[in-house]
Amino acid sequence: MTESMKPIQVGLLGAGTVGSGTFKVLARNQEEIKRRAGRGIEIAMVADLDTARAKAVAGDGVQVVSDARAVIANPDIDIVIELIGGYGIARQLVLEAIAAGKHVVTANKALLAVHGTEIFAAAHEKGVMVAFEAAVAGGIPIIKALREGLTANSIQWIAGIINGTTNFILSEMRDKGLDFDTVLKEAQRLGYAEADPTFDIEGVDAAHKVTLMSAIAFGTAVQFDKAHVEGITKLAAQDIKYAEQLGYRIKLLGITKRVAKGIELRVHPSLVPSKRLLANVEGAMNAVVVNGDAVGTTLYYGKGAGSEPTASAVIADLVDITRLHTADAAHRVPHLAFHPNAMSDLPILPMSEVVTSYYLRMRVADEAGVLAKVTGLLANAGISIDAVLQREADEVGGEGSTQTDVIILTHDTREGTLDDALAQLQALPSVLAPIVRLRKEELS
User: Fold this and answer.
1) pTM
2) Phi and psi of 252, rounded to 5°?
């Protein structure tokens, strides 16, 4: 049998949820996958510390080992799939696999967002591919869309709901009017949130993913450390309710945008107009909106996690590598879509330079002239107001209450300008509690 007819040999590191899904989907669709790839794809070796679990996943005829380095050392293995996760041993193993001349498929967004520059450089040097479709938005082929499908476009901006845990929590908070802590416990009970949910609820996972999309869209190096990252832990049920009354839903968005001064790279809760498709993405689903100069706005929606959806992306990468395995390295799609010697050094902007619009909620004394003071202060700062919602005092604090909520939506303004104005507003004697500020994205 000629080399190109023999199934390509794959080694798998990590036989958990995604690893088991990869086996299932490969087995179920092997005939179609072979017809598409031009040759068979075979997982010949699996490494997992839990060898019993790995044997149950891999079945007969697959070599199971507890040491990942045994897979990397095997000269018959062409491709290594890394599904271990994290920044630690995974980084070592990926670099060793590359050094051994193996192609790598990974679902590890944390690793690539932080160490991607080093890993892609090593792969480029060695003439091997690192494919990572599964690292962003699970089964949605968003990396492929950005690197290939939209390659003719100058990308203007990307905004995505790219963390299912937080989207599930926000959907529940909105549906049931409950506060964050209550819903988080419920999400953990249902298995939507991990025992330690920090990476998800603090926005870190979404920031890893948007960092990768930003680098591909704008041809910059991956710079996770420059991203602005805010989670949903401080969101109040009442702001979700007020937003709704004003025609908005609150979503945790990963946003990256090209502006005159550089690139915005940020993750935070955002008010999105209820009529936008993105505002209606509920539960654990993911969705990414990409705006390009030629194509306009495109939307990618689907399952952002899970065994088989993520396996779908892993296997698509295996097929890509199998097709290109014998191709001249210079003609492959570059890792970050731009050739390494043609990368841009556009700066990532600090938050103070970001221009967007805002939602402000102020608990104020219910007395004459307060609203005039507030709007006067904003006007002096050059911040124009889009809408004002003033609650009746008894709605907010019960009958006879002397306090009320004022909600203000602003037009576009520079964040640094707003910060200064907020400091002045907070100092007013009639403002009785810390002002709540949320960003608003029209996505038009």
Assistant:
1) 0.94
2) -85, 115
